[in-house]
Write a structure and sequence with these properties.
3-stranded parallel beta sheet; single chain; Barwin-like endoglucanases; 6-stranded mixed beta sheet; 12 strands
């Protein structure tokens, strides 16, 4: 089989007309994908867009159909962590209004398209997964209990595998793979002399669709900011807390400038949680040739006082 497209490649295909429609579940590419202005044009170019989410996100504002989904507290289902532990999350309350649990939406939509899915619960779905996945074959809802089970768990009487490769690795010792050095897609210069790094804050997650609605978290970190080195701020005549404009070859945003004593000279940091100063307006959609990951951590920008 041919590998599919990454999210960034899908957005590009929507812009060219190759991708006609999209069905998004719990994703907000308007805020999370690079080059927001390009993403806006791509979403507007789609002939049909369905968004299934728990809030009306920035992406959902482009949707032809919005399917209200459920939070983790409103549904029963399993979660597999990166340490391979499969855990059972149990519903604490029912979804509000017309919201539904996700597996029911997917089942009903599939059946309307001609499938004959007969799942009556999330447990039915998990049983099918376990029947087709050898590492999960010995896991059941009953066995998960309160502590979960760590896969591989190949049989019902197997306790799970806390330590993987305890007797050695299948292919022998660790294998080193050389990495080729590659310059960033754009370098700082006279017009854009600073390097932008984007990322998250402690208080917020991803595009902020949940955490910015949490009163306590939002009160601690209520607004966007650009973190700069004090010497760069002095050189540019920018005082602590001053409002600045950060620009790249793709767009500009306005936000507060701060010096938190953690940036190297010539670099600035902006979190991407804030719609009103969306950091990804500035970033490039160019992809790493191997990993297909955008260059979120290196964009050439300039910073100037608002009004100059």
């Amino acid at each position: 089989p041919q590998p599919g497209m990454t999210v960034v490649e899908i957005v590009g295909a929507a812009l060219t007309g190759e991708m006609k429609g999209m069905y998004m579940m719990g994703e907000n590419p308007f805020m999370s994908d690079p080059n927001t202005n390009k993403v806006r044009k791509a979403l507007a170019a789609l002939e049909f867009l369905v968004v299934q989410d728990i809030f009306l996100t920035e992406t959902a504002e482009f949707a032809d159909v919005i399917l209200p989904a459920s939070t983790a507290f409103e549904k029963t289902g399993t979660y597999t962590n990166t340490d391979r532990r499969v855990q059972l999350g149990r519903r604490a309350t029912r979804p509000p209004g017309d919201a539904r649990v996700d597996w029911e939406i997917t089942r009903d939509l599939a059946n309307r398209m001609g499938a004959e899915w007969t799942y009556d619960s999330a447990e039915d779905v998990f049983a099918e997964i376990a029947s087709l996945t050898p590492d999960y074959a010995g896991i059941t809802y009953e066995k998960l209990g309160n502590a979960g089970v760590v896969w591989p768990c190949p049989t019902l009487d197997h306790p799970g595998t806390d330590v993987l490769f305890g007797e050695g690795f299948p292919r022998g010792r660790g294998r080193f793979s050389p990495a080729r050095f590659a310059d960033p897609f754009e370098l700082p210069g006279p017009d854009f002399p600073l390097v932008l790094i984007t990322g998250r804050t402690l208080e917020h997650w991803h595009t902020g669709s949940m955490t910015r609605r949490a009163r306590a978290l939002s009160s601690i970190q209520p607004e966007a900011f650009v973190d700069m080195h004090p010497s760069d701020m002095t050189e540019l005549g920018i005082a602590q807390g001053a409002r600045v404009r950060v620009s790249s070859r793709r767009g500009s945003i306005e936000l507060k400038a701060v010096a938190l004593d953690r940036m190297a000279r010539g670099t600035v940091f902006i979190p991407f949680h804030f719609r009103e100063a969306a950091a990804n307006v500035l970033t490039s959609e160019e992809l790493d040739a191997d990993a297909k990951i955008p260059d979120y951590k290196f964009s050439a920008v300039k910073v100037e006082l608002v009004g100059k």
